[in-house]
Amino acid sequence: MPQRKKGMAEQITRDTEALKLFFTEDIFLVPNEVLPAVKDQKASGDLIETNYGDTIEKQVEEISYVGRNAKHILILVNADEYPESISAGVPLLWNIVKAIKLDPNDVAVVNYAAYPNLHFDKLQSHFQPQLLISFGVPATALNLGNQPLQVLVNLENANAIFSLTLKGLDEDLNSKKLLWKSLQQLNLS
User: Fold this and answer.
1) What's the whole-number mean pLDDT along residues 162-175?
2) Strands 159-163 and 131-135, sheet pairing
3) Where are the alpha helices (DSSP H) in the chain?
4) Strands (DSSP E) along 42-126, which ranges?
5) Which of 31, 76, 115, 160 makes a 20 to 30 Å CA pair with 83?
6) 176, burial (CB in 10 Å: exposed 0-12, middle 13-18, buried 19+)
7) CA angle at 47 for the pair 45 and 51, rounded to the nearest 5°
8) 21-59: burial string, b at 16+ Cβ within 10 Å, e else
9) Closest to 73 measured CA to CA, from 126, 124, 112, 131
10) What is the pLDDT of residues 97-140, one digit of tens each?
11) Would you give the DSSP letter of residue 4?
């Protein structure tokens, strides 16, 4: 019997500890649904080209965001350190999204640092959020008056939670606990 050469077949592993070394990013499984990979949407003037693998979708938009907004959950992040994109480099944000049993396709994440004069009425008409989670963007900046931090509040057509910046939240355990209590009140099913 001829000897088989060792090849790719012998290099396959299903050992979870070995796989953790290669896959350091979170992987989300969507049952019975094939979704295209979501890329950042970048504005160039008013025209945006969104690349979904083999196809390029062109549409007129005004606000760049990460995600697909499938569940109409808008997340604002005031992240000066990520002026171009917030799709990478914000592990706490994606851990929070995962902890409330959502994935990036369910939300729209906007880096408010790129739109410092954007008000809630514009966000409301663009995203139609049922829930707004704001990290480091005060309610007053959105023309919503004063709102408490880490508390679920009811706005006109949406609920909202206003919190510290992601960096501030990461450093303040008490605020993180209060935020988690408010997030647990949500019914996102």
Assistant:
1) 90
2) parallel
3) 16-22, 91-99, 120-127, 166-171, 173-184
4) 42-44, 47-52, 55-60, 66-67, 73-77, 107-111
5) 160
6) middle
7) 125
8) eeeeeeeeeeeeeeeeebebbeeeeeebebeeeeeeeee
9) 131
10) 999 999 889 999 999 988 888 899 999 999 999 999 999 999 99
11) P
Smallest CA-to-CA distance from 133 within 160, 93, 155 is with 160
pLDDT tens digits, 31-84: 554 444 444 444 333 444 455 444 444 343 478 888 899 999 999 998 776 554
Q: What are the structure tokens assigned to 25, written together?
A: 């990013």
DSSP code string of 126-161: HH--SEEEEES--GGGGT-----BTSEEE-SSSEEE
Q: What token pair was written down for 57? A: 């979708």
Give the contacts of 135 (CB within 8 A, at least 6 positions apart): 75, 76, 77, 78, 79, 93, 163, 164, 165, 166, 169
Calpha distance 92→84 (Å, rounded): 18
Strands 47-52 and 55-60: antiparallel
How far apart, in whole angstroms, are the C-alpha atoms of residue 131 and residue 107? 10
Tokens at 106, concatenated:
């369910």
